[in-house]
Amino acid sequence: MQGKLFGLGVGPGDPELLTIKALRLIKENDVIAVPGNEIKESVAYKIVKGVYEELDTKQLISVAMPMTKDKAVLEANHQKAADDVTQYLKQGKNVVFLTLGDPTVYSTYLYVHKRVINMGYEAEIVSGITSFCAVAARLNMGLVEMAEPLHVIPATYKAEQMDEVLKLPGTKVLMKTGKKMKDVRESILRSGQNAVMIENCGMPEEKIYWKEEDIPESAGYYSLIIVKENQDK
């Protein structure tokens, strides 16, 4: 009998935002896949460890997820991750794959998920709280109201078109800003819209920048910006 893969969202950073279902699956299964080369340095590991001290009693396997746009490197790593996971599935063991936020939103896990299914194994996505919903809640604000649209934008890939992107109506959530933060910040200022940024939401090193002019020209990977048309935040 084959095992099953669970792609499990652990939320954006605050351990208390881990769902009851996620914690149950972690407790019930012995093999936990952790993204990153160093398991105990992984943010996903730290989130779970924050509410489940016994995590280290599980069989923890590291899954390399390099930060690169090189398609060949990504393809090789995604396939290796799928191969590593299926080694346990072949033995009839379930594997719980930790992933930040929700696995359906810009998650590297999805590439592994599709490969594992194509290899003939069963895989299930377990939803987690998305970063942008957690950020809005942390900032005590709504994302959208009435008929306002919501746009979730991978800013790193759209930085060159950011002036046009910011003309979209409603609320813009800018994720994965990364090394393009300076360019994105300049576009926001040119747009004249209201923006707030949070870095490391729900984590000990959390920082909030309440005004668009306070957004730094560089920030860490776990940074998210919410841009709204001119109105009170």
**SS elements, strand count:** 10
> H/E order of the elements?
EHEHEHEHEHEHHEHEEE
Cα-based radius of gyration, to the nearest Å? 19 Å
Total helices: the number is 8
Secondary structure: helix percent: 25-40%
Under the CATH scheme, which class of the largest domain?
A: Alpha Beta
Structural class: alpha/beta
Q: Report the average pLDDT across residues.
A: 92
What general outline do the C-alpha atoms trace?
globular
* CATH topology (fold) name of the largest domain: Cobalt-precorrin-4 Transmethylase, domain 1
Name the poorly predicted regions: none
- Please identify which CATH superfamily of the largest domain we are dealing with: Tetrapyrrole methylase, N-terminal domain
Strand count, sense and closure of the main sheet?
A: 5 strands, parallel
What's the domain count? 2
- Portion of residues in beta strands equals 15-25%
* Named CATH architecture of the largest domain: 3-Layer(aba) Sandwich
Brief summary:
This protein is of the alpha/beta class. Helices cover 31% and strands 22% of the residues. Strand 2, helix 2 and strand 3 (59-63) form a beta-alpha-beta unit.
Structural overview:
The chain has 233 residues and is an alpha/beta fold. It folds into two domains: 4-126, Cobalt-precorrin-4 Transmethylase, domain 1; 131-228, Methyltransferase, Cobalt-precorrin-4 Transmethylase, Domain 2. The protein has helices at residues 20-28, 43-49, 71-89, 109-118, 131-138, 155-158, 162-165, 181-191; strands spanning 4-9, 31-35, 59-63, 95-99, 122-126, 150-154, 171-175, 194-199, 207-209, 223-228. A five-stranded parallel β-sheet has the order 3-2-4-1-5, sandwiched between helices. A five-stranded mixed β-sheet has the order 6-7-10-8-9. It is globular, with a radius of gyration of 19 Å. The protein starts with a strand and ends in a 5-residue tail after the last strand. The mean pLDDT is 92.
